[in-house]
Design goal:
Largest sheet: 14 strands, mixed
Shape: elongated
CATH class of one domain: Mainly Beta
Radius of gyration: 54 Å
Distance between the termini: 117 Å
Structural class: alpha+beta
Mean pLDDT: 78
Number of helices: 8
CATH topology of one domain: Jelly Rolls
Helix content: 25-40%
Strand content: 25-35%
Number of strands: 22
Length: 463
């Protein structure tokens, strides 16, 4: 006999969740739920939830029946999703739901991963706890990422601006270069035109003088031919009187001596273009092109021997001893006999590139600035209101300079082997007058070169 209440339970088990009637030709799905065959084949119901445990998407009727079972009340229900999403919710190794979060490896794991796998001794937390923690960190992380995005946008904007500057500068540089080459070609054409015109004029003068001489010789030749005819006709003259008179007239005619090698003294050509001159011209032109290319590719001049504070190099007499007052690394040479010029040499040296340093000389009455190489010295010397440039013991220039220099720039170009001195003092506040060349000296290619500083009275300020 059936127990009381068993019939209603059995009826519920035999009820189709779609038509709510007793099963007609019941069929069983892979998820373990049963439906009428006709109900399944006639109008599928839209899924309202997906059970992660059953891995099945449920319609509303199916969901009601699913949730009615007490053994399924702990199942996880989510919004409807496809099979790929369901597969991502399970551990690829154990096939269990990913319900935990490993803080050590920053990955989601299943219960077997926490117990038996490589995550056994890691810091594990429930997925819901990790979710709450992540949600609390979301605003801060979002702000950080936004700031990072803003920084990237600014960086991209700066790069785009730099890109435009490169294009603009390149266009300007190209236009200047094209203008320069056009001007060079124009001047070369003008110069060649002037030279060729001078050559043509010289040729015309020479040919004119030659033609004049030829015409003169032709006239003299015609006169000589006439004399010959008269003399030949005079052979048949038998009358002595007539013969003597005619012969005397012909013989009295003047005949200038003709040089063995006929030549006219011609004006000198405006240019001399022999093999030597041609080779020399080509050599100079190639040197010009090389210098021009070097100028275009010249690296920026590097400023050296500078500091945030002025570097003072000076000597103060203390009895018979000159005491050096300086900061930095300088070595001091012993002055030569009968010389009160104290010289300091920088420990820093240069062997390549282009370098300069500037020195305030306004507090020294006599001073020396330059370089010292292994086999030479080159320096600008100021004493008794006179500027002199020396290459070792040879004086290059010497000229009066009644107004003391305030600031001097020393510029060393190791590529061209030159040492230049500039007056950097501003004249009447005019910036264009702030850098004026005093002298450029060709120096031996003997390096390294050390800057040297000499002073008799007072001190120098290295700027």
């Amino acid at each position: 006999m059936a127990e009381p209440g068993a019939a209603p339970g059995l009826e519920e088990e035999l009820t189709c969740p779609i038509c709510l009637g007793i099963y007609r030709s019941p069929v069983s799905l892979g998820c373990g739920h049963n439906f009428c065959k006709g109900c399944i084949e006639e109008e599928p119901q839209p899924a309202v939830k997906t059970c992660l445990n059953c891995e099945a998407s449920l319609c509303q009727a199916h969901l009601s029946k699913h949730s009615a079972k007490s053994c399924r009340k702990d199942h996880v229900l989510v919004e409807p999703c496809n099979a790929q999403f369901l597969a991502e919710r399970r551990c690829p190794k154990h096939g269990k739901l990913l319900e935990f979060y490993c803080k050590t490896d920053s990955v989601c794991v299943c219960v077997l991963c926490c117990v038996n796998s490589s995550h056994k001794n890691h810091e594990i937390t429930a997925l819901e706890v990790a979710f709450g923690k992540a949600q609390s960190l979301l605003p801060e992380t979002l702000e950080t990422v936004k700031n990072h995005e803003a920084a990237l946008n600014q960086s991209i904007a700066n790069l785009l601006k730099q890109e435009e500057e490169v294009k603009s500068n390149e266009s300007l540089r190209r236009n200047r270069l094209e203008t320069l080459f056009e001007e060079m070609c124009r001047q070369l054409d003008n110069n060649s035109g002037e030279v060729l015109k001078a050559l043509s004029h010289n040729e015309e003068q020479q040919l004119s003088q030659i033609q004049t001489q030829i015409q003169k010789h032709k006239e003299e030749k015609d006169e000589a031919s006439r004399d010959i005819q008269e003399l030949e006709a005079l052979r048949d003259q038998k009358d002595p009187l007539l013969f003597i008179k005619a012969f005397a007239v012909i013989q009295a005619r003047k005949r200038k001596p003709v040089p063995k090698k006929a030549a006219v003294k011609l004006p000198k050509p405006p240019i001399i273009l022999d093999e030597i001159t041609t080779d020399a011209t080509l050599r100079l032109f190639r040197q010009f092109l090389s210098d021009m290319q070097s100028l275009f590719k010249a690296p920026p001049v590097h400023e050296h021997l500078t500091s945030s504070q002025r570097q003072r190099i000076g000597f103060v007499p203390s009895g018979n001893v000159a005491v050096a007052h300086t900061f930095g690394t300088f070595s001091f040479a012993t002055p030569k006999p009968h010389s009160d010029m104290q010289v300091a040499q920088s420990d820093q040296s240069f062997s390549e590139g282009c370098h300069f340093w500037e020195v305030d000389t306004s507090n020294a009455s006599s001073w020396r600035l330059g370089i010292a190489g292994p086999s030479f010295q080159c320096y600008l010397n100021f004493s008794n209101n006179c500027l002199s440039v020396f290459l070792s013991l040879t004086s290059i220039i010497a000229k009066g300079f009644p107004t003391a220099l305030k600031v001097v720039r020393v510029e060393l170009d190791c590529r061209r082997n030159t040492l230049s001195f500039y007056n950097v003092s501003v004249k009447d506040g005019d910036p264009e007058e702030s850098l004026r060349l005093i002298e450029t000296v060709s120096i031996p290619s003997s390096y390294p070169a050390h800057p040297i500083f000499g002073v008799s009275y007072g001190y120098l300020n290295l700027l």
